[in-house]
Specification:
alpha+beta, Rossmann fold, 6 helices
Length: about 180
C-alpha cells in the first residue's frame, strides 16, 4: 500500500480535498439537494472546508437527513482498513489495542481490506429509548472478569457507531425525544 503512494488523511481532510476537487471541476457538490444553493449549501461548504463539526437543525421535511446522506459522495470511493478490525482502523493510524499490536508486529504485511464509501456512513434514529449504551457500547461484565481493562479499550460490547468509524455518522430525529431526555446521550 505504501508503494502505491497511499497516504493517511483524516476524514475531514478527505472530505475537504474531494469538495475542493468538485468545486474546481464545476461539479454538483451536493447532488439531489435542490433549492438551498444560496442559503444553506454555502454555509455547509465553508464548514466542511474549515473542518468543522456540524449540527443541522430544522423542522421536519427540510432536507437535513438527505443533506447528511449526500455528504458521503465527498468520501473517497475506497479506503483501507485493518482486516478483522471491529472499528475499521486505518492501517497507518490504528486506534484499537489489537490493531496497534498487529501493526507493530507485522508492519507493511498487516492484512487490510478495502471499504466502499457506502459502508462508511452510519445513521442512528434517536428514539426516546435510545441509550448511551446503544451509541457507544456498554461494559461487558464477562470481558471485565477475564481481566480486560479500560486501558485496553476492550471491555466494551459492540455499538452502533463502530461500523462507520473513520467516516461520517449521523444521529437523527432528536425532535421525538421528550423534553429533558436529551441529557441521556
Amino acid at each position: 500500500m505504501r508503494a502505491s503512494g497511499h497516504e493517511y488523511e483524516t476524514v475531514k481532510e478527505e472530505i475537504r480535498r474531494n469538495l475542493l476537487a468538485r468545486m474546481r471541476a464545476g461539479e454538483d457538490r451536493f447532488p439531489g439537494i435542490v433549492g438551498f444553493d444560496q442559503t444553506v449549501l454555502p454555509h455547509v461548504e465553508r464548514a466542511l472546508l474549515a473542518g468543522h463539526d456540524s449540527i443541522l437543525l430544522g423542522e421536519r421535511g427540510q432536507g437535513k437527513t438527505r443533506l447528511i446522506r449526500t455528504l458521503s459522495v465527498l468520501l473517497d470511493d475506497w479506503t483501507p482498513a485493518v482486516a478483522g478490525c471491529e472499528i475499521n482502523d486505518h492501517p497507518y493510524q490504528p486506534v484499537c489495542a489489537r490493531c496497534q499490536r498487529l501493526a507493530a508486529e507485522q508492519g507493511d504485511d498487516l492484512p487490510i481490506t478495502w471499504r466502499h464509501r457506502s459502508e462508511r456512513y452510519g445513521e442512528k434514529l434517536a428514539t426516546p429509548d435510545t441509550s448511551v449504551g446503544d451509541l457507544i457500547g456498554d461494559i461487558d461484565p464477562v470481558k471485565v472478569a477475564e481481566g480486560r481493562t479500560w486501558a485496553t479499550r476492550r471491555p466494551f460490547t459492540s455499538a452502533w457507531y463502530r461500523g462507520p468509524t473513520a467516516a461520517s455518522s449521523a444521529l437523527t430525529n432528536f425532535r421525538t425525544w421528550p423534553s429533558g431526555s436529551r441529557s441521556r446521550c
